[in-house]
Amino acid sequence: MPKKYHIHPKTMPLDLEYVFKFKIVRGENCINCGKCSKVCIYQAHKRSDTDPRKMADPNNVVCRNCFRCIQECPRGALEKSLDKGYLSTGGGYWKPDMLITLYKQAEDGNVPVSGAGYRGPFTGTGFDSMWTDMSEIVRPTRDGIHGREYINTSIDLGRKLNHLVFGAEKQLISKSPDTVDISLPILFDIPAEKLNANVMLAMIKAAAELNTFVIMPVADITTEYEKHSDNIIPRLSAAEIDTHKEMIKKARIVSIEYDEALSKNFAGIRDKIKKIGHALTIIRVPAVKDVEYTVTKLAHDGAEIIHIVADYRGQELNSPAGSGSRHLKDIIRSVHQRLVEDHIRDEVTIIASGGVGLAEHVTKSMLCGADLTTIDLPLMIGLGARIYEEREKYLVFPEGIATIPTPVVTQRMINLMSAWHSQILEMMGAMGIREARRLRGESGRAIFFEEIDKDTFGKLF
Ligand code: SF4
Ligand code: SF4
What we know:
By secondary structure, the protein is α/β, with parallel strands linked by helices. The chain has helices at residues 35-39, 68-72, 84-88, 96-108, 197-210, 223-226, 245-250, 260-264, 266-276, 291-300, 328-341, 359-368, 377-381, 406-431, 449-457, and strands spanning 22-26, 78-82, 130-132, 155-157, 180-182, 186-189, 214-217, 232-236, 253-257, 280-286, 305-309, 349-353, 372-375, 386-387, 395-396, 446-448. The protein has two domains: 22-82, 2-Layer Sandwich (Alpha-Beta Plaits); 155-457, Aldolase class I (TIM Barrel, Alpha-Beta Barrel). The longest helix has 26 residues, at 406-431.
């Protein structure tokens, strides 16, 4: 049995201004009796450091909205209301609740309980129109998640053999291609917005701790980061290969942008990289209309890993949301289907990106046909960054993020991945799947709202 993979979370609060769902305000009629500090098990109420006779301002970061302090205050001095900032953050895709969930997960690595008393809708768009099979949840095999049986979340990146070839003497002729094994089906990607050096370094360190990689634009890889080259995937265009030979030589994987030069001479570019070193090559393909055609062609031409990149809401690129553009889950299903029809699916690794904002999105992308996903924005949201979708994608970091020590930022990213790892294990356990590799394309383990809606009402309406 392989060594069990553990992530070690550690509570790591950030002392920065952040938006929370509810805001607690202590009124002037407070008599500083301290009862609220006794009843709040999350220590949201404490006495002031400078004057212990008085209460400090409530700490909204740790509040879990149980309302106990409100009920038990003898003076009715505490007020809880929806925070105005909360209502204005996020948008149609990155909903405020999602942002708060990610922030809390980064805080301590725990999974916030959110299902009890859920009164929201049971379907939506994108990943929300897909439900996963939970039929194993009531069976004894579920013990596997926390004990007897090991659920493996690792996956391999690289080209796989379709079949083995033997010689006349029955000797094995096929040579296994090189692969790279990572412990989680997640790579880190650098968002389009400029990040400060502290956050970048933290991403690399967290990736190393988690046994995964960060995909970094080659221009961002300074000499300081180069010593972590084991966990960095340099991202560059085909035209930049000659300039960055030394970096490619040290890398275990490189990411090359799909552009006109590459589409015309894929084999030449692939061979050039192989001559420089031993790096596996990811081809980064934009998720535009007809991406299936590009991916299938690349797979036939021998691509090892293909990375399909949708926009930050998981929508097809170059087509505005609502104009019939597809969501990542539909793009991946279609690509997977094409590769299966061409009998080449097992040979190539497919990475899906765009709009992956919760742990369930990783599992759902894999059920649709991806081998793994990348994430960028969730790591930033875990640091208190907000997204405002209404104007355009706009990532705003809380003031002071640059001064937070790197180990704190790193640990918050590890905490976030620890929470996601636990959730992925829960979902896999509930589906009775013990190997993350087996999630790929298991769409029979999912229900797609659009399909059952059509099956049920299509004939009537
Ligand atoms: S319980 Fe009420 S009165 Fe007592 S310290 Fe807390 S807010 Fe003030
Ligand atoms: S609502 Fe509950 S968790 Fe929040 S501060 Fe009051 S007692 Fe603590």
